[in-house]
Write a structure and sequence with these properties.
The chain contains 11 helices and 10 strands. By secondary structure, it is α/β, with parallel strands linked by helices. It has an 8-stranded mixed β-sheet with strand order 3-2-1-4-5-6-7-8, sandwiched between helices. The protein has a two-stranded antiparallel ribbon with strand order 9-10. The chain is globular. Bound molecules: nicotinamide-adenine-dinucleotide.
Length: 295
């Protein structure tokens, strides 16, 4: 594989493009308008600079990587791709539309992957011809730092597709872990119920935000408490993944806490909106608790 296209230049898309570019792949990064592409260009440049500063890469490697990425609003550029990774917003209908477009441009043998956190790969594969070439490549955030790629084998994914993607993932020095295509895969099936339970404990007044997070950090050696992690992921994203688990299994144990639903409706989505369980953007490295539980 030589040419990789990434559709969607947001948080994940720019990280995926950045990481592949470091390994000398020719990368096409596509988004709907130039404003999003410009933001991605700046983010990638800043993140590469950070790697230079930390002496993970040299200035020359940064320059080469940056030159490996083509930014574009057109699908024309993706025609020659060996692999296209879809990383647009987590909405099944939108992803299917994008996959249908990808299908029109690339050859019938190009592999098509989705970075979805929770949507069924088997279902997404219905949007393309030759569904045996559809697979899940679930990168973790931030992509250049996190080692894991959860590889999701859809119902129709072929062994050929799987082997190619496992091999590629190892080449970019990530750890591929293969799972089957069931709601939430493994990562979010285990993570989201834990986050939901932390929110329930807060909602019921068992303990406050800082206490819950500190217990999980100091007691269970988690690098970040579940409520802070939820803020980082985005509370809207957490809610939509819990809804996928709830609908997929029909089991009430996955039903989202009313407090989480309330916060999403109120627009308190975590770090990206400046407020979730904590407040952000005041310049302090010490987190300020935003949500006060009722005694
Ligand atoms: P994001 O909102 O930061 O970025 C999505 C990008 O897709 C935006 O730039 C948007 O303009 C673009 N887009 C929307 N429609 C498009 C179209 N038709 N054509 C081209 N581009 C289009 O979202 P994100 O956090 O990067 O998430 C992307 C995917 O990665 C989702 O499926 C999400 O579930 C998954 N994911 C996210 C995380 C995370 O921590 N954020 C982690 C793992 C996986």
């Amino acid at each position: 594989m030589k040419i990789i296209s990434v559709i969607g230049a947001g948080t994940m898309g720019n990280g995926i493009a950045h990481h592949f570019s470091l390994f000398n792949y020719s990368v096409n990064l596509v988004d709907i308008n130039n404003k999003f592409l410009e933001r991605a260009r700046q983010t990638i440049s800043t993140n590469l600079d950070r790697q230079v500063k930390k002496e993970i890469i040299t200035q020359e490697e940064k320059d080469n990587s940056f030159n490996n990425i083509q930014f574009s609003t057109s699908f024309e550029n993706i025609k020659e791709s060996d692999l296209v990774i879809e990383a647009v917003t987590e909405k099944a209908d939108l992803k299917k539309d994008v996959l249908m477009d990808i299908n029109k441009y690339v050859s019938g043998t190009s592999i098509i992957a989705s970075n979805t956190s929770s949507i069924s790969i088997t279902n997404l594969a219905n949007a393309i011809s030759n569904p045996e070439r559809m697979i899940g490549m679930h990168f973790m955030n931030p992509v250049p730092v996190m080692k894991l790629v959860e590889i999701i084998r859809g119902y129709q994914t072929s062994e050929h597709t799987l082997n190619k993607i496992v091999e590629l993932t190892k080449k970019i020095q990530k750890a591929p872990i293969i799972v089957n295509d069931y709601p939430g895969f493994i990562s979010n099936r285990i993570l989201m119920p834990m986050i939901n339970e932390a929110i329930y404990a807060l909602y019921e007044g068992v303990a406050g935000v800082r206490e819950i997070d500190t217990i999980m950090k100091l007691g269970m050696a988690h690098p970040m408490g579940p409520l802070q992690l939820a803020d980082y992921i985005g509370l809207d994203v957490c809610l939509s993944i819990l809804n996928v688990l709830f609908e997929g299994f029909g089991n009430p144990k996955y039903s989202a806490c009313p407090l989480l639903k309330n916060m999403v409706v109120a627009g308190k989505l975590g770090k990206k909106t400046g407020e979730g369980f904590y407040t952000y953007g005041n310049g302090s490295s010490e987190l300020t608790v935003s949500y006060q539980f009722l005694k």
